[in-house]
Specification:
Elements lengths: L1 H7 L4 E4 L7 H4 L30 E2 L8 E2 L9 E2 L18 H4 L1 H5 L9 H15 L27 H13 L4 E2 L14 H5 L4 H12 L22 H4 L1 H6 L3 E4 L2 E8 L5 E8 L5 E5 L3 E3 L3 H10 L18 E4 L2 E8 L19 E3 L4 H5 L9 E6 L14 H4 L4 H11 L3 E8 L8 E9 L5 E6 L4 H20 L3 E2 L7 H4 L10 E3 L23 E3 L14 H20 L4
Helix pairs in contact: 5-17
C-alpha cells in the first residue's frame, strides 16, 4: 500500500523485497485439479496448505532462516518470501474494527487504547474497500459498523449449508450476516472510482484506471488460496503493485534481505543495508524517508538489529518496547456431520472459494455486565458444501457407513459428500508482557543476521474464550441436528490453537499517545526518528477479532497521507 500511495503522489520509491519475484497472472494454477499435483495436492512440511498454495517460497519453515523459542514456548512464525508477501496467502476476510476495538482499555480496563478513533479511520476504510474491492452486506450491528453507501461490492448468494446454519442460529439469537471479503463480484468502475479515490491527481487516476480495467470479477473457478490470475481477489501483486509500477516512480529490487536501518549523525534514518540473496553481497542504499512494511515480527527484527551509538538497543527503541506486546488471533474449531445435508442433488457450491456468510460477536452486553469469564469477543467463520474433492476426502467415512465397499461405498460417498461442515472461531487476544520477540543472543541466519527468539503465553481470557467457542459450535451443530466429529475439548488450554498458527501476528512496534508507552505515533511515525515509518501490523495496539489485513491497509494509507504532508512542509 505504501509503495502505491507514495508513487501516485509523485515520490520516487525504492521497493526492497526479501523474496523472489512473483506474478500471479502467469504462475497461478487456476484450473489444475488435485490429480495434476504431487501427492494429489495434499500438504507436507514444506507446503502445509497444499501443493497449490500461493506461497511459492516460505511458510512456517524457511530454509536457512530459522527462529528460536524460549524454553516452554510454543510459537510458529509464518513468512512469505515472495513479492507481495502475506497478501498472497490469506482468506481475504476484510472486517472493519469497530469503535470499541479502538478504545478497549476505556471499556474494560485491559490493554491499551489506540491513539485514534474509529471515526478517524472510517474514511480510510471506505477508500481502501473501494480500491481493493470488497464484497459485503450493509448490516450495522454493535461494534460491527457498516461501510458508507456504494462502497462495497454486492455479496454473493448464501449457499445451502450457510442458510441451514443461519436457520439454526436464528433460534439461538446469534447473528449470521454476509461476510466481507476482498473479492470482486462485479468489475470495478474504472471510470468513476479513480476520480473518487484520488480527486485532482491525474497521475493516480490514470494508472488506477488502467489497473482496475485489467481486473475481472470472480467466476467461481478455483480457491483464492492459489492466487488469482484474473486479478479478482486482492493481493498486492495484482492490485497495488501494477498501478504503482505504471507511475514510473518505483524501482523494485527482489531477493533483497534488509538487515539494518542506518542513521546519520543527527539521528535521522539515512537508508538501509540489505543482503543480495543471489550474490550474497551487502549493499547500502540511501533514502530521505524509510518505510518498514516487512510484517510485524520482521519489522521488529530489523529495528532491533539497527543498533548504533545513538540507538544501542535498536532504532527508535528508547522506550524498550520494540518487540513487545506481540499478539496473534485466538483460534479454535470443530468439524461436524449434518444429516440434513446428505444426499442433496448435485449443485455447484464453489462460490467465491471462501465464506459468503459469517457470525459477528454478539455478546458485548453480557461482557460489559461482567457475566462472562473473558473480556473480548470472537467471530465465527464456517464452511462446508461440495467443493473440489481433495485427497482423503472420504477418510473416516466408515464411521458412518460401518465399512461399506464396492458399489455400496460409491453410493455412500455420494450420500455423505457435502454433508460435513467446519466452524472456526477467530477471537481477540489481549496484549500481555509475556508475549514478545527479541534477538536471540547467539543464533544467526544464513545471511549472518541475528534471528528472533519468541516468548509466548495465553492468558485465561484467551483460553476461556476458546472454550466458549467450541461449546458454542457444539450447540449450533446440535441445533442443526448434526453430530460433532471427534471430542469437544473441555479445557480451553487444549482447545486453543498454538500461537502464530492463525498467522495474524501484530503488535511489536505499537503506536500510542505517549512516547514512553509506545514506539510510534498515530501515523505510524517513530517518536524518536521522524523520517522512519511503519505501515504493517507491527503498529497494532490491540488485536480485535477482526482479521487485520483491511485495517493494516487503511492505516497505511493514512500514514502515507501524513508522510506526504510532512514532506511538503519540510518536517522530514
Amino acid at each position: 500500500m505504501a509503495a502505491y500511495q507514495l508513487s501516485v503522489q509523485g515520490l520516487k520509491v525504492l521497493l526492497l523485497e526479501a523474496g523472489r519475484d512473483y506474478d500471479p497472472v502467469t504462475e497461478t494454477p487456476m484450473f489444475q485439479t488435485p490429480k495434476d499435483a504431487p501427492l494429489r495436492g495434499s500438504g507436507d512440511a514444506n507446503k502445509p496448505f497444499g501443493f497449490y498454495d500461493a506461497t511459492v517460497d516460505g511458510g512456517w519453515r524457511v530454509p536457512g532462516e530459522p527462529f528460536t523459542t524460549a524454553p516452554g514456548t510454543q510459537f510458529s512464525w509464518w513468512r512469505a518470501r515472495m513479492l507481495g508477501g502475506r497478501t498472497n496467502h490469506w482468506g481475504r476476510i476484510s472486517l472493519r474494527m469497530g469503535p470499541y476495538d479502538f478504545k478497549p482499555k476505556s471499556r474494560d480496563g485491559l490493554g491499551e487504547d489506540w491513539p485514534l478513533t474509529y471515526e478517524q479511520l472510517a474514511p480510510y476504510y471506505d477508500k481502501t474497500e473501494m480500491l481493493i474491492g470488497v464484497y459485503g452486506g450493509d448490516d450495522d450491528l454493535e461494534n460491527t459498523p457498516r461501510s458508507s453507501p456504494g462502497v462495497l461490492q454486492p455479496p454473493p448468494a448464501a449457499r445451502t449449508y450457510e442458510l441451514l446454519a443461519k436457520h439454526a442460529c436464528d433460534g439461538m439469537k446469534i447473528p449470521v450476516i454476509p461476510a466481507h471479503r476482498a473479492v470482486l463480484t462485479r468489475p470495478q468502475d474504472a471510470n468513476r472510482l479513480p476520480q473518487k479515490l484520488h480527486p485532482g491527481n491525474a497521475l493516480a487516476q490514470r494508472v488506477l484506471k488502467k489497473s482496475m480495467s485489467e481486473r475481472m470479477a470472480c467466476f467461481y473457478a478455483t480457491d483464492c488460496g492459489r492466487g488469482c490470475s484474473i486479478k479478482a481477489n486482492f493481493q498486492s501483486t495484482t492490485v497495488l503493485l501494477p498501478p504503482a509500477m505504471y507511475t514510473g516512480n518505483v524501482t523494485l529490487i527482489t531477493d533483497a534481505m534488509v538487515r539494518e536501518v542506518t542513521v546519520d549523525a543527527q539521528g535521522k534514518a539515512s537508508g538501509v543495508h540489505y543482503v543480495d540473496k543471489v550474490t550474497r553481497a551487502d549493499h547500502h542504499v540511501t533514502a530521505k524517508v524509510v518505510v518498514l512494511a516487512a510484517s510485524a515480527c520482521e519489522t521488529a527484527r530489523i529495528m532491533l538489529n539497527s543498533k548504533s551509538s545513538l540507538f544501542p538497543n535498536g532504532i527508535a527503541n528508547g522506550s524498550g518496547l520494540v518487540g513487545k506486546y506481540l499478539m496473534d488471533t485466538v483460534g479454535a474449531g470443530i468439524s461436524a456431520q449434518i444429516p440434513k445435508l446428505e444426499g442433496l442433488p448435485p449443485i455447484n457450491e464453489d462460490g467465491t472459494a471462501g465464506i459468503h456468510m459469517y457470525m459477528p460477536w454478539w455478546l458485548y452486553g453480557d461482557q460489559k455486565a461482567g457475566k462472562m469469564n473473558f473480556a473480548r469477543g470472537y467471530h465465527i467463520e464456517f464452511g462446508g458444501g461440495r467443493g473440489m474433492p481433495g485427497p482423503g476426502i472420504f477418510g473416516g467415512l466408515e464411521t458412518y457407513t460401518q465399512g461399506a465397499y464396492g458399489k455400496k461405498f460409491k453410493e455412500e460417498a455420494r450420500r455423505y459428500y457435502g454433508s460435513f461442515m467446519y466452524f472456526d472461531g477467530r477471537g481477540e487476544m489481549i496484549p500481555n508482557e509475556d508475549s514478545y520477540c527479541e534477538l536471540d543472543p547467539t543464533a544467526v541466519d544464513q545471511w549472518g543476521i541475528p534471528v528472533l527468539r519468541f516468548h509466548w503465553k495465553w492468558s485465561d481470557h484467551e483460553t476461556n474464550q476458546a472454550l466458549h467457542m467450541v461449546n458454542t459450535f457444539k450447540d449450533i451443530v446440535t441445533q442443526m441436528g448434526g453430530t460433532v466429529q471427534g471430542t469437544v475439548p473441555t479445557d480451553g488450554a487444549r482447545a486453543i490453537a498454538t500461537g502464530g498458527s492463525i498467522i495474524h501476528e501484530v503488535g511489536t512496534v505499537r503506536m500510542g499517545s505517549d512516547p514512553k508507552k509506545s514506539v510510534l505515533n498515530e501515523f505510524g511515525q517513530a517518536w524518536e526518528v521522524k523520517n522512519l515509518f511503519v505501515t504493517d501490523g507491527a503498529s497494532f495496539v490491540s488485536n480485535a477479532d477482526k482479521n487485520p489485513t483491511l485495517s493494516i491497509l487503511a492505516l497505511a494509507w493514512r500514514s502515507c497521507d501524513h508522510l506526504v504532508e510532512e514532506l511538503k512542509r519540510g518536517a522530514l
